Structure formats: structure tokens, C-alpha cells
Please model this.
Amino acid sequence: MKPPIKVAITGAGGQIGYSLVFRIAAGEMFGTDTPVELRLIDLERQVPIIDGVKMELDDCAFPLLKKVVTTTDLAEGFADANWVILVGSVPRKDGMERKDLLEINGKIFVGQGQAIEKNAAPDVRILVVGNPCNTNCLIAKASAPKIPANRWFAMTALDENRAKTQLAQKTSTDVDAVKNMIIWGNHSATQFPDYFHATINGKAATELIENDWLENSFVETVQKRGAAVIKARGASSAGSAANAIIDSVRRIITPTPEGESFSMAVPSDGSYGVPEGLIFSFPLKSKDESYEIVQGVEHDELAQTKIAATLQELQEEQAAVQGMLG
Amino acid sequence: MKPPIKVAITGAGGQIGYSLVFRIAAGEMFGTDTPVELRLIDLERQVPIIDGVKMELDDCAFPLLKKVVTTTDLAEGFADANWVILVGSVPRKDGMERKDLLEINGKIFVGQGQAIEKNAAPDVRILVVGNPCNTNCLIAKASAPKIPANRWFAMTALDENRAKTQLAQKTSTDVDAVKNMIIWGNHSATQFPDYFHATINGKAATELIENDWLENSFVETVQKRGAAVIKARGASSAGSAANAIIDSVRRIITPTPEGESFSMAVPSDGSYGVPEGLIFSFPLKSKDESYEIVQGVEHDELAQTKIAATLQELQEEQAAVQGMLG
Model:
């Protein structure tokens, strides 16, 4: 049997963590032939909860789960980790300015970036989920300069999945008929779900669906879906966020089918006029042990405007945390 | 592609349901080549929650998930269902006598049994999880006399999984080295986790572990594990219970490896002196479209005493709900 993949998860005592860890242990992330070790990391006050989650993981008798560590200590949690999933972050509270939110979270991600660089495995890859995830990723990456840029990811797979289902339901097709549903930019309300290049059973979505619905209803539904789920459930997306984490890792480590792409925020290499280093969601293709940003996607004026807006927001976030970028 | 398997789940808005539905939709219960339809059933006050869960299932873009129905109506929920997972039940509250608990839940399971018989698919199989699950299963089955006895199950897989891990950790072995960990009787504190027949890497557990630990610490830990998890997490087992549901269905529909068994409460055929019809946990082997109760397991005096105790409890439960058994 292969050696275990060590997966460290921050905020593991939260709802996303609870929806995630059982699925990783069952083999959904790395396959049913790959053993795993889990590091459940959370704050001191969450320790009884992560200890309880560990008990429940034990109670599943998962054949692939070789070890579970619960800890508040980043060095212990990240030690030799092959994958680090940064889920924990401070949520925005009433009266909190966006700048405050960026600063509070920024400090957390400085420490986490440093601890990852110091302790994780040489092949570590990092997926940032805790919001604002693009800028949290930017900060953590800046705090870990020895880790190559192509190891850093911030999650837009949930947006991509949400957008796919909206298109599938609108056209009464199966969701796996929807391909190339690119999310551009920031994982926030400024993101641009690019319906211009999405296909449904090989046909352009724009040929099958009226433009007014795509331009307005579709884009807004995807951008505001998180709030709609909170309104219905009385709690934020957890099961679907955990699922998107699994999808993200699988999409990164699995060869992308010919002619397809998936969306993920990664450090820009200058593609599409996005300044180098900014964590921006692009269409990606998995390639060997890494990925490439799909080139040559053309944008009309409307798309350019939307991409410029989300880029501007990310640059403002970057400016707000400049002091933490080393 | 195969036709979808229709899975109906009661109490779907609860924590076990939330831990379960994403894993079923991902293909963990029936395999990644089998599409599924989900029926999320719950009480009126839970409707916003199950509607929110449906939104999140949509947001996962699961290729195998062909349809999700949310409903309070049993006829709609059970219509043509191939599998019914009865998770919902009324938990015991302070000051409630065991008899009251049996009666309150009994009424629910009478209605559910009738609705299953009237609406479900001809091949329906039913797994009862809501407690007291053995007696709830007894009542539902009695209310659906046209459904063959071998379609009814009450869950002891969580106890079995818990027991396996206790033996694995005690002997520092992998949990999949532990086999034939039989749970006898009631899914309650009187259950008997039969360490006499468990093997670890082919050797008897009783040869590898001192008797005092097995007879006392082990049995008590397994029997009281649910309470220990509540104490740690501040919430009852959900992820591990959902996992045991997945294991249960998979163990029933997958050929059991030669020389092995799994534990599940089923209507007794008189085996081991258990009166016919009582829902009692036995060692089972999956066989063709059904199962057989493994015969010839021998019990010493201590085991006989423990099995008699759990049998007596089940008979008392049966007596308490006699009026609902038709």
C-alpha cells in the first residue's frame, strides 16, 4: 500500500471541517487505494470538539485512516503535511469594516504561512478556503517565500459547481453535461461566472439560454448563493463547501479531460493582464504534478468590465494588507 | 447507465441526515456507477432546513444525483423508494419514562410502516436508525405485513465499528485487521459486543488481550460510547452514525468475504433461541439478494448471560408496545 498522505485542516472543529473529514477518511479525496493521516487543527476553545470528532473518526473504522492528530499547535499540525487545507478564518461581524476583517484574518495567515514553510513536507500544497480566501492566500504565500508559487490555491470550486447546476437546471440537462464554467477573479460577490464560454452538451450556453437571464439572474444567483443558503438553512454552506474542497483537490491531482478546464484562484503569472502574484481565479488544466492556466480565452466588452471589477477589488484588498506582504 | 436508486430518508434535516446525504450523492453507498434520487423527509418545522440541504446538494454538481425531493408527506417521500432509511425519531427527554419513549416513537413507526407498504418499490429495503431502533423496526414491520421479513434492518454497525477500533487500538493494529466483531441483541446499553469470536490478523482477540480488559473496559466502552461522544463534542454522534448507515447498506448489498460476518439487527428466525420475529442483532452474511444468519457460534456461560440480558430487554420493549403490533 502507498504511504499515507498527510492532510492538515485548520478550523477543523467547525461545520465545514465536520462535513469534510469523514469524506477524506473514506477515500473520496485521494482514492480508495491511498491511506491518509489527518491533522485536526483548531483554537484552544475548540479542542473538546476536535477531540470528539477524532472519537467519531475512530468509530468509523475507516481502513484508509492511519492516524488522527488533534492539536492547537501549528508546528505539530503542519509537520510533514502534504496537503494543508486552511478552512479556519474569522467571519465578518456586524459593524466590522472590510479593512478590519482583512487585517484580523491577515495576521492569522501570516502565522500559518510561516508555520507551513517551516514544518510541512517538501511537496506541500495549500488550499485556502477561509474568507477572504484570495487575499488570505496572498498573505500566507508571502509569509512562506520558499514554497513555490504553484503550490498555492484559493477555492472557487464552490462557485463553479453552483454555476454549473444553475445552467443545468435552466436547460433541464444533467449537471455533468455542463463544462468549462469558468469563475474569474475573487471568491466574493464581484466574481465573474463566465457564461460566455460554458458549454452544455457541447453547445454554447449562450445559444441555449436567453441573454437577459444569463447576464442578470444567473450571475447574481451565483454571486449571492452563499447568502441564500444561509437564509434557508439558518447556517452557512458546509456540506457543499466541504464537497468543493474535495473536488478542488481531485481536480488538481487528476489529469483534466482534453478540451476542459476547472476554476481555481492561483498566483497570477501575468495571464489576462492580471498583475503577477495576485491570487486570481482562472481556468486551469491539471498538468503532470502541477497545472497550467488555460490561455486564449477571449472576452467581449461586458466580460472585460466584469473582470476588471473583480481585479480592482482584489487590488484594493492587496493594498489594505500591504504591510503583511513582507 | 443504471436506473437511479431511490433513497428516502426521514429526519433528513437533522445532523445525521446532513452527514449522510452528501456521501450518498457522491456515490459512497451504491458505487460511482449508480445514479441516485434522494427523498428528504422531515417535519413541517424542518422544511426550511431540508430545502436548504437540497440547495447545497444542487451546489455540489454531483454527477450521480438525478433528483432531490423535499417533503413532509410520507406517501410522496416513500413513492417507489428502493431504500428507506428511518433516521427520525423522538429523543428521550428529562423525566420521560422508557415506556413513554417507546409509545411516542411507536406511533411514528406505525404510520411509517403503513406508508412504506403502500408506496415503496416492490424491492424496498428498510434500515431503521432512529432509537429505540430495534423496537421501532419491529413496529414498522408489523404495520407493513406484505413486505417480506428479510427486507427489515435495524442498525448495529456503529457499535460494531466502535468495537473494532477499540480492539485495534488496544493491540496497535490496523482496524481492518479486526474481523467478526459480532454485536448481539439490542442497540442499547445491554448489547453484547462479542469479543470471544473477534479475530485480529486471524488470531482470537482473547489470545492477544487480557480477559479483564475485554470483559469490563471493552464492553463498557462500546456500550457507553455514544454518551462519551456527546460529552466531548457537545452533540450526539452524527458523522459516525451516517458512516455506519453507509457501511450497513454496503454490507447488505455486497458479498461478504468468505469466513467473515457483519452485525445487523434483523427479524429473528428462531436462531440462537431468540423468539421468531424479534428484531435482534446477529452475525450476518450477505447472500444473493438477501442474507443469512451465521449459524453455529458457540457461547460460554458469560456470553449466554449477556445475550439473555439483551434478549430480555427486547422482550420487555416488545411487551410495552404490544398494542401497536397488530
User: Anything to note?
Assistant: Chain B touches chain A through 48 residues (CB under 8 Å). Chain B has a mean pLDDT of 96. The longest strand of chain B covers residues 279-287. Chain B has eleven helices and 14 strands.
